[in-house]
Amino acid sequence: MLIDSACGGSSHLGTDGYVEGAPELVAEVAASSASKDLYDKKRAYRRNGIQEYIVWQVFERTVSWFSLQNGEYVALIPNASGIIQSQVFPGLWLDASALVAGNMQQVLAVLQKGLSSADK
Predict the structure, then answer these.
(1) Of the candidates 81, 84, 42, which has an alpha carbon nearest to the alpha carbon of residue 62?
(2) How would you classify residue 17: left for phi > 0, otherwise alpha for psi between -120 and 50, otherwise beta?
(3) In the chain, which ranges are E strands?
(4) How many angstroms separate the CA atoms of 40 and 108, rounded?
């Protein structure tokens, strides 16, 4: 996901239709590549200034959401309701437990609640 450069984002779509510059958020679904996604890619994303990075580790049944703070990624911790909230995209909420359990109805309900929240 990216924030339009006209609104202060660090990337834009080039004339060829490809993203130029670092998007604000990258999300990965990792199966056999989990170690690569959590180490090599994470370093590359940090070096390029990607502000948030999500990895859904399918086999481990876990979701890790990181926020770039002072040049280092810090794991975002779910709130008391078990919801992870983006620091960059107000209203982008994720019920990670519901996601790994395959409860997409709950995932979408939490997302809709976030999008309609006053926190936007």
Answers:
(1) 84
(2) left
(3) 11-13, 19-21, 25-30, 52-57, 62-69, 72-75, 84-85, 93-94
(4) 31
Instruction: DSSP letter for 24, please.
Output: S
Q: In angstroms, rounded to a whole number, what is the distance separating the alpha carbons of residues 78 and 95?
A: 8
Query: pTM for this structure?
Result: 0.85
- Compute the distance between CA of residue 56 and CA of residue 119 in angstroms, rounded to an integer: 25
Q: Where are the domains of the chain?
A: 5-115
Other Cβ atoms within 10 Å of 108 Cβ, number:
12
CA distances from 26 to 81, 104, 105, 116 (A): 24, 20, 23, 23
- Strand-pair category, 25-30 with 19-21: unpaired
Residue 69 has pLDDT above 60, yes or no: yes
pLDDT of residue 19: 81
Are residues 83 and 59 in contact, defined by beta-carbon separation less than 8 angstroms? Answer: no
Q: What is the mean pLDDT of residues 48-58?
A: 92
Q: Give the gyration radius of the chain's Cα atoms.
A: 15
